[in-house]
Design goal:
Membrane topology: Multi-pass membrane protein
Helix content: over 70%
CATH architecture of the largest domain: Orthogonal Bundle
Transmembrane segments: 24-50, 70-96, 108-130, 142-166, 194-216, 253-275
Shape: globular
Subcellular location: Cell membrane; Membrane
Distance between the termini: 60 Å
GO molecular function, one term: molybdate ion transmembrane transporter activity
InterPro entries: MetI-like, MetI-like_sf, ModB_ABC, NifC_ABC_porter, Sulph_transpt2
CATH topology of the largest domain: MetI-like fold
Strand content: under 5%
Order of helices and strands: HHHHHHHHHHHHH
Structural class: mainly alpha
CATH superfamily of the largest domain: MetI-like
CATH class of the largest domain: Mainly Alpha
């Protein structure tokens, strides 16, 4: 018995001695890859903060182009997020709770703006709502013009940002245990009451995180906006468009706007992490 045990222990030691160098090499490789990736991400972002002095940053914030772009972006992104939440929540709830003919097609069309190039989204909106567009030509009869206005900015943001909320909302609704909904129905609650009093509160954390992501996507929209709304200061020039414009003559203003967007993006990520961990 002792000899057999000795042989087994010797075999284990030989196996561990062979695998130890391999594990060490794998650990070093993973550490090197992580370090390279972190450097690749952090160095460009850190360069923005190192490229401009605090005095130049705050001085740029007082320039009209920066103030106009900042205020317009915050207002339009907020409006578009509200629109997405109001219209996207019922759609996400229906798709999560009901199996109807064509649901896969609806899901595919909902996700389409995620993979659609922003320039394609912009020209598609222009062909639909422009003055000679499929819908715009009828609006033009009543003197309603959407393209190259602030309304166009909101529509472009809604188009590209809606999937981020709807996908998250649908996943959150699907994660809600139907046992609670069934119990409410047996007590006589209507479908509307069940949705408002049971389903939505239980999925609240996912809905909030989806709305935050949608707001961030709307805030950073560039391609569809410039194609459909144009680039007019104080009217359609959002922060990404202002960065593109000021890069040609005022680098400090462009960097200042970029820093603001970086800070907002970091805050959005932190907010999503806090919301998803919090118990509602």
């Amino acid at each position: 018995m002792d000899l057999t045990r000795f042989r087994q222990e010797s075999e284990v030691l030989r196996h561990s001695s062979r695998t130890r160098p391999g594990r060490a090499a794998l650990t070093l490789l993973v550490a090197a890859l992580l370090a390279l990736f972190l450097l690749f991400v952090t160095v460009p972002v850190a360069s923005l903060f190192l490229r401009i002095s605090p005095e130049a940053f705050f001085r740029s914030l007082a320039e009209p182009v920066v103030l106009d772009a900042l205020s317009l972006s915050l207002v339009t992104a907020t409006i578009s997020t509200v629109i997405v939440v109001v219209f996207g929540t019922p759609l996400a709830l229906v798709n999560a709770r009901h199996d109807y003919r064509g649901r896969d097609i609806v899901d595919t069309l909902t996700d389409l703006p995620i993979v659609l190039p922003p320039a394609v989204a912009g020209i598609a909106l222009l062909m639909a709502f422009g003055r000679r567009g499929v819908v715009g030509q009828y609006l033009d009869v009543f003197g309603i013009h959407i393209a190259f206005t602030t309304v166009a900015v909101v529509l472009a943001q809604v188009f590209v940002a809606s999937p981020f909320y709807i996908r998250q909302a649908k996943a959150s609704f699907e994660a809600v245990d139907r046992l609670y909904e069934d119990a409410a129905r047996t007590l006589g609650a209507s479908p509307w009451t069940v949705a408002l009093r049971i389903t939505v509160p239980l999925a609240w954390g996912g809905l909030v995180s989806g709305a935050i992501l949608s707001f961030a996507r709307a805030l950073g929209e560039f391609g569809a906006t410039i194609m459909f709304a144009g680039n007019f200061q104080g009217k359609t020039q959002t922060m990404p468009l202002a960065i593109y414009t000021t890069m040609q003559g005022d680098l400090d203003a462009a960097i200042s706007l970029a820093i603001i967007l970086v800070v907002i993006s970091f805050a959005v990520i932190a907010a999503v992490k806090v919301v998803t961990r919090r118990k509602f």
